[in-house]
Specification:
This protein is an alpha/beta fold and about 160 residues long. It is about 25% helix and about 30% strand. It is built from four helices and eight strands; from the N terminus they run αβαβαβββαβββ. The strands form two sheets. A four-stranded mixed sheet has the order 1-4-3-2, with helices on one face. The chain has a four-stranded mixed sheet with strand order 5-8-7-6, covered by helices on one side. The mean pLDDT is about 90.
Length: about 160
């Protein structure tokens, strides 16, 4: 029996985000993206402790089909001005260009609220439109990781 390569292709499950302040991150992802906290772990296997020394707590945040694993562990924010081997950003697709405007404004409102500590003091970019009509903006989440929000017109994937 032959198995097609597409049947063996991995499916994306979650993004892992390291944080110094789990409560701050949980509140921010809840308020900004509307994530719900699904589960929390504070006991870990030897493998996990060896891979992530100092890990204190891990929680799963979910919105729609997006899963974000936040884990609290001592460390420092990445410096976007320095080149490093890391995930450069992850992108959320919106269904309507107006969602870009409201999402960007929600980020600004939460930043200005003073209720969250941000690793980087950077405002979101303006919403830009490329030659294909794709609209997007970039913003840093509370831990200093870059997020992209994009609208793809028509049937573009």
């Amino acid at each position: 029996m032959t198995v097609s390569p597409s049947a063996l292709a991995p499916r994306f499950h979650h993004v892992g985000v390291q944080t110094n302040d789990l409560d701050n991150s949980v509140r921010w992802y809840s308020e900004f993206l509307g994530c719900e906290q699904v589960w929390v772990l504070d006991r870990f296997s030897e493998l996990t402790r060896s891979r992530l020394p100092g890990i204190r707590t891990l929680t799963e945040m979910v919105v729609g089909e997006v899963r974000i694993h936040l884990f609290e562990r001592p460390g420092q924010a990445a410096d976007p001005g320095q080149s490093a081997v890391q995930f450069q950003h992850f992108c959320f697709r919106v269904h309507d260009p107006d969602e870009l405007v409201t999402t960007r404004q929600r980020w600004i409102d939460l930043y200005k609220s003073g209720r969250f500590w941000f690793a980087l003091d950077e405002q979101p970019t303006d919403i830009v439109v490329d030659d294909d009509g794709i609209q997007s903006f970039y913003a840093y989440e509370v831990n200093g990781l870059e997020l992209e929000f994009t609208y793809l017109p028509g049937d573009q994937s």
